[in-house]
């Protein structure tokens, strides 16, 4: 027998027209930004959605991390020592809930250690294994990557755990076939081109293509360009800072038009989209994993239908869902609505945040077009494209200085320097551009060339903290544990772990009060 007497959560979450409404449900936060008004005639409206990962706690998922390290002959000397130092930092930052496997590859791959629990005792043992690594042989990236995948596929204990592969190489693959053809499935692979700017052996272009191709084919991976040997620790550290602060897994955003509104387009980088057809007007975007404080921005262009009178209407229904920690249940937000007031012959005023994000997308596209021109050895046209992008950024009408616009300007200026000669472009510029492209498309931080000339974009607070810690570690200072990092962050944000549930209950309570007030207003005598 069933009773079917469960109660629905009272009310939907409705964003008032033009308000910067923020809705926090579970481990994700949604912010809706759009113009408050639009004309009653058919018109266009651009809406910006911001999804932010929220909260890590003492019960975070354990990480199964596989590092795949190039130990071919070109790694001898200082490069190998810098790699060992970077690995020591990684090992010291992992906790007893984490496991680490180390794969090396030269002419063929070798498993230095399987997935080891990283506790105080094993840290010493694993560091000792790293110190014994020697460089020799050719460069078989394919065998290294395939071995790493076998380690993850062969796990007995894998429920409720996150995974990641960090793969670095300093030279062109010359054994084992094309590594970009390896099927990596749903595993994120973060690749690092080490020392490409000074690599005398091999083809930097081919190397960048391979490492970028591997990362692009994976679920959420990035390609970091690390031309200076001193930059490897920081690049590794920032990547780990994300992996250790996983907020949500398998995140999907669903956008549905309301009241005869039409979704004209959705800009969300290279993340997979489905829907937006006559048969399925809703659009679903699959973002994969999202780190704590990491953001995904989505621009939605709408066509609003003509209406007969001035009225406030819901134009979008928005929801998101993700897997719980044990990957056994889908957690869903309640429906969230974005509204706009249709009034007279008003002209929608695009919000500054929307303008800036649209400019970022346009700048990244123009930089990609410039890179393609440079690949065709049309360097004058490539430089002109970057100058055009710089001029567009200068013409943006915003109040004061915007940090993202300044970062974009610095990124364009750095790439323009790389375009000054074919030799400089091939040596350094192309890897820089590929790293930037994938970082923009996935809105995820990646190291790009000389860190002093490329301000951090998409970096989370933990990534920034780990970068500083790695730089101090290089100078001989001790490394805080991951537990100490989490404790410091908790002190800075004491309600972070409960903000999702608390925020939802507050929003539901407000909606209930608004509903009651509407009932009282409609019942009041005229």
* Largest sheet composition: 8 strands, mixed
Rounded average pLDDT:
87
Could you give the distance between the termini?
A: 48 Å
- CATH class of the largest domain reads Alpha Beta
- Identify the quaternary structure here: single chain
> Roughly how many Å is the radius of gyration?
25 Å
Q: Which stretches of 5+ consecutive residues score pLDDT under 50? A: 1-12, 197-202, 498-502, 510-522
Architecture of the largest domain, CATH level 2?
3-Layer(aba) Sandwich
Number of helices: 12
CATH topology of the largest domain: Rossmann fold
Fourth CATH level, the homologous superfamily of the largest domain: von Willebrand factor, type A domain
Number of strands: 19
Share of residues in helices: 25-40%
Strand content: 25-35%
Shape: globular
Q: How many domain units? A: 2
Decide which structural class fits the backbone: alpha/beta
Structural description of this entry:
This protein is globular. It has twelve helices and 19 strands. 44% of the residues are buried. By secondary structure, it is α/β, with parallel strands linked by helices. The protein starts with 12 loop residues before the first strand and ends with a helix. The protein is 37% helix and 26% strand. Strands 1, 4, 12, 14, 15, 17, 18 and 19 form an eight-stranded mixed β-sheet that branches. It has helices at 78-93, 120-131, 141-153, 204-217, 232-243, 352-375, 379-394, 403-418, 422-442, 461-474, 482-492, 499-523; strands at residues 13-15, 21-25, 28-33, 37-38, 43-53, 62-70, 99-105, 109-117, 161-169, 189-194, 223-226, 246-257, 262-267, 272-275, 283-291, 295-304, 311-323, 330-332, 336-342. It folds into two domains: 29-57 and 247-349, Immunoglobulin-like (Sandwich); 62-244 and 405-482, Rossmann fold (3-Layer(aba) Sandwich), CATH 3.40.50.410. The model is unreliable at 1-12, 197-202, 498-502 and 510-522 (pLDDT under 50).
